[in-house]
Amino acid sequence: MPTYILLSSWTRKGIENVKDSPNRLDKAKEGFRALGCEIKEFWFCQGRYDMVVMIEAPDIQTYAKALLKLGSYGNIHAETLRALPEDEYREIIAAIP
Fold first, then answer.
1. pLDDT digit string (tens) for 29-83?
2. Phi and psi of 68, rounded to 5°?
3. How many Cβ atoms sit within 10 Å of the Cβ of residue 55?
4. CATH code: domain of residue 46
5. Can you say whether the dihedral through the CA atoms of 27, 29, 30, 36 is positive or negative?
6. How far apart are CA 24 and CA 71, in angstroms?
7. Which of 14, 53, 64, 94 could tie 75 with a disulfide, CB 3.0–4.6 Å?
């Protein structure tokens, strides 16, 4: 299943209610699962991003739907990276003419 890395930072609303953040994470996991995605890893970070999340989804449309739903709550700003595992990376490099 395709993997997406979600880089996110709290909005003003999100940080004002930071104590509720663990509950929001639990709800996000449930919501993503209900839409066919799975949050595989979660990291709380220091630096430019507050959280890094690894998510698997069957396709970009399903992932986008889940991310738009999550974003509609107004607690985070998000940036997505499509992540390819090492074996796919090696296949791509080997296929370069």
1. 999 999 999 999 999 999 999 999 999 999 999 999 999 999 999 999 999 999 9
2. -65, -40
3. 24
4. 3.30.70.920
5. positive
6. 12
7. 14
